[in-house]
Sequence to fold (337 residues):
Amino acid sequence: MTEKKGLIAYETQYGSVADVAYWLKALIGIENHVDVKKYNQIIAVEPYDYVIIGGYTRWEKPHKTTYDFIERFHDELAKKELAYFLTCGEIDETLVMYMPGRPVHQTGGRSYFMDVLKKFPKLKPVTIRAFGGRQVNRFLNRWDSVTIRLLQKTAPPYKIGWTGLDMWESLVPERVEAFANDIRTKILSLPPQKDVANYRGFWKSLQPGNLTDKSKDKLSTRPWTATRSEKRGYSTRLRIKATIDTTASLLEDWAKQNGMELKEENKTFYNKYFIATKKYNGGKALSVHIVIAEVIEDPGNTHIALNCYAKPAIREGAEEDIKKAGTLLQDEGRKID
Ligand SMILES: Cc1cc2nc3c(=O)[nH]c(=O)nc-3n(C[C@H](O)[C@H](O)[C@H](O)COP(=O)(O)O)c2cc1C
Fold:
């Protein structure tokens, strides 16, 4: 078999994507031909059999540099085997974003690619993953630093995860390793790399900051299971021992039992988004936004988030229904603490 030639095309602002790009090269196998180049170092993609495109996130999408790179080589890329990855702060793929004045939409992790997938339908990546990243706040440029400080004022820390901290690190090594093994098995027909953990040194970094520095206030990972009751909404996030399909059929049972209309809003290869609607006390119908997702670092389990974006005075019935969903989903030994 002739050897396939690969290109990892990337852009970084603060270094996370660069660290990951060389880590991926090592995991894919230094015996294979893989060039690692920043977008602006690339003058042609023709010489390659496959291209891995890696960017960082800004405002719930890959940064403009990734769009520009794809547009520049679009027709050639359409003929290649492709893979996409992102670094980001938010790694939770059960998230739905509610902001007054904007449609409710899925966000976080791979959901940041939805716009790219819609915009460039001729490009068909064989794998997509979002890894998380690293940010040291004192190292941000002036513009980013002002923006982050403004966000800090408006959003509670648990929501954003990167406000009020000296630094945060959200990268999940298993996601990087799974992505590299996707490339090995799906593109290169190689066996998966078994001793993946030996390569994590590619991510460990002493500059511009690191998580062992005790003087710094750092991001603590949000709990997988949590219920929040706020002025703007009520939400429950949990995980259970079940597949996505079993979880979806449990939700259908829950909807039937409680007189809710359940509609599948969106389906990807890693999650499903449903909206359950019901009229409470003869009033206006309320919606419960539900996302169920598989999580590579928590194999065999499905993560679920249920959210009702309504004020406390009118959402009592929906809260009760969300609690009932939690009980049903966790029944019959599916509960994980
Ligand atoms: C102004 C600004 C906006 C950002 N927006 C998002 C976002 O919408 N979602 C997210 O998950 N991360 C967001 N991030 C975090 C970056 O995507 C993350 O730090 C990324 O890993 C940076 O990659 P780099 O170190 O290669 O530059 C944002 C960061 C900044 C500074």
